[in-house]
Design goal:
about 70% helix, mainly alpha, single chain, membrane
C-alpha cells in the first residue's frame, strides 16, 4: 500500500474532504452533503493511518509519533466541526427560512453573508484539491507501470459515488423564491469537486486496464528461450 499509493494523493484527498466538510457547514449546503463530508473525512483518516502504519511497520521512525499526533488532531477537528457549527450564533427566523438565495444576483436578493462567502471559498479550495490530488497518483502509476497494490473498487465506487452525488444536487429543485441559476451557483464548488474529478478517475481506470494487460502479457512470456 505504501508503494502503490501516492502520499500526495492521500494528503490532497483528505485536504479536499476537510475543506469540503468545513465549507458545507459554513455555506449551508444540503444535509446529505454535510453527512457525506463527515464520512469522507473519517474514511480518509483511516486510509492515511493505514498508509503510515505499513510505511513504518518495518522501519520505525522518529516521525511516526508526530504523524500520529497530527492524525489524532485532524480526527478531533473533524468530530468537533459539527459541534462548533451547532454552537454558533443562530440566525434570525427570516434568515433560516429564506432559502439559498444569498448568491443570487437577481433584484431584491440579499447580499451574501460573510460566513457563506468563507464557506464558498473553502468549498472552491476543496474542489481544487480534489482535482490536484489525482495527478500524483496518475504519475505514480505511470512511473511504476503498474497498478498492483491499488484496489480498482476504490476508484470505481468513488466514480459512482461522485456521479450520484452530483446528480442528487442537480436534480433537487431550488427552494421557493430561489432561481435555478442561484441554486447552481451556490453549489458550484461541490459540483466541480464531485463531477470534475470523473475525467481524472477515468484516466486512472484506463491505467488499470493498460497495466493489467501488460502484466498479464509479461506473465505469459516463457522464462527460457525455446
Amino acid at each position: 500500500m505504501d508503494q502503490a499509493l501516492s502520499l500526495w494523493f492521500l494528503l490532497g484527498w483528505i485536504g479536499g474532504d476537510s475543506c469540503n466538510l468545513i465549507g458545507s457547514f459554513l455555506a449551508d449546503q444540503l444535509p446529505l452533503q454535510t453527512y457525506t463530508a463527515v464520512y469522507y473525512v473519517l474514511a480518509d483518516l483511516v486510509m492515511l493511518t493505514l498508509y503510515f502504519y505499513y510505511k513504518f511497520r518495518t522501519r520505525p521512525s522518529l516521525l511516526s509519533a508526530p504523524i500520529n499526533s497530527v492524525l489524532l488532531f485532524l480526527m478531533g477537528m473533524a468530530c468537533a466541526t459539527p459541534l462548533l457549527s451547532a454552537a454558533g450564533p443562530v440566525a434570525a427566523p427570516r434568515e433560516a427560512f429564506r432559502g439559498r438565495a444569498l448568491l443570487s444576483v437577481e433584484s431584491g436578493s440579499k447580499p451574501f453573508t460573510r460566513q457563506e462567502v468563507i464557506g464558498f471559498v473553502i468549498g472552491s479550495i476543496s474542489s481544487v484539491l480534489y482535482l490536484l490530488s489525482r495527478l500524483p497518483q496518475i504519475r505514480t502509476n505511470f512511473l511504476r507501470k503498474s497498478t498492483q497494490g491499488i484496489s480498482y473498487s476504490l476508484f470505481a465506487l468513488v466514480m459512482l459515488g461522485n456521479t450520484l452525488y452530483g446528480l442528487s444536487v442537480l436534480l433537487k429543485n431550488p427552494e421557493e423564491g430561489q432561481s435555478e441559476g442561484s441554486y447552481l451557483l451556490h453549489h458550484l464548488p461541490w459540483l466541480v469537486g464531485s463531477l470534475g474529478v470523473l475525467l481524472l478517475d477515468t484516466i486512472i481506470s484506463i491505467q488499470f486496464l493498460v497495466y493489467r494487460r501488460s502484466t498479464a502479457a509479461s506473465e505469459l512470456e516463457p522464462l527460457l528461450p525455446s
